[in-house]
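thought: fold this chain, then report.
action: predict
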Amino acid sequence: MGDGWTMRKMWVGAGVAVALGMGFVMLLVVGVYLVGGNPAGGAGGGAKKLAKGSVPAAYQPIVQKWGNLCPAINPALLAAQLYQESGFNPKARSAAAAQGIAQFIPGTWATHGIDGDGDGDRDVWDPADAIPSAASYDCSLASYVKDVPGDPTENMLAAYNAGAYAVIKYQGVPPYKETQNYVKVITTLEKSFAAPTTRVDPSEQAAGAIAYAQKKLGTLYLWGGNGTPEQGGRFDCSGLTKAAYESVGIKLPRVANDQYNAGPHPGRDELLPGDLVFFSDDLTNSRAIRHVGIYVGGGYMIDAPRTGAVIRFDPIDTPDYFGATRVTEDGAKALPTTV
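observation:
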């Protein structure tokens, strides 16, 4: 059986996992299938609140304030745009010369940049100016296309991507694949930044992800491990969660802090098996997340903890517990591959 099995046997024998043996986990798996439903829905527009920690703490008050500038946007939608554009990186610079956290090109900034913090300048590299400017620009675009039929938020986003003229010409989101994808990505990501207002339904794939992770119990940790044959089938924490959900057809980003945005965020008392659970030394900033596991119920997760340890059951109620994500297929598809 090897050292991994010996370590696992010792761990179970210590009594910590008696209630979390395979039979218990399989009951959880069955339970997930029984209660599985459609992913939680949502729509753009309105005064939504941001999910706790979904935006870096330094930017959360600005996004919450300016995200309510007009009815076509909301804080969660604005946060989704910033995440998609730059991953909240105020120093981001693209090959197309887009600059800052909101990725303004110089010409657009010259026309639409505002002094958001009232300090007398308009600095595209300063989030206190760039985030308000992004909200202001969104609202300007919404006013340009306000007479176009359809959803005003979707029309605004389409205007952001393809220009207001195209939206007016086609009387709605234009038939451009890039633009249609942009609208879908932002409106889907919006759900992962909004604080839940109703029960968050589980993903039907959650049970399969747990079953995959179960089979890896006792496997030795490998930093950067993706479970490939060349790596001896070993994983690190986010490599395990990525592979578990990929086994049921959902492709997650590689790193834990991006996986956090793959769906809405249930509270601790709402956790269900299959939810991803996250840990951080900064409980106000999802970009600082450093560890992830798959919740199995009873206050425990399956995770790949650290070098020298094996994939195992661990408790989640620790001081560095950050929060959870209920993975949805649409949410995972909307995540950028790089930010």
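thought: worth noting. Confidence is low (pLDDT under 50) at residues 1-46.
final: tokens above.
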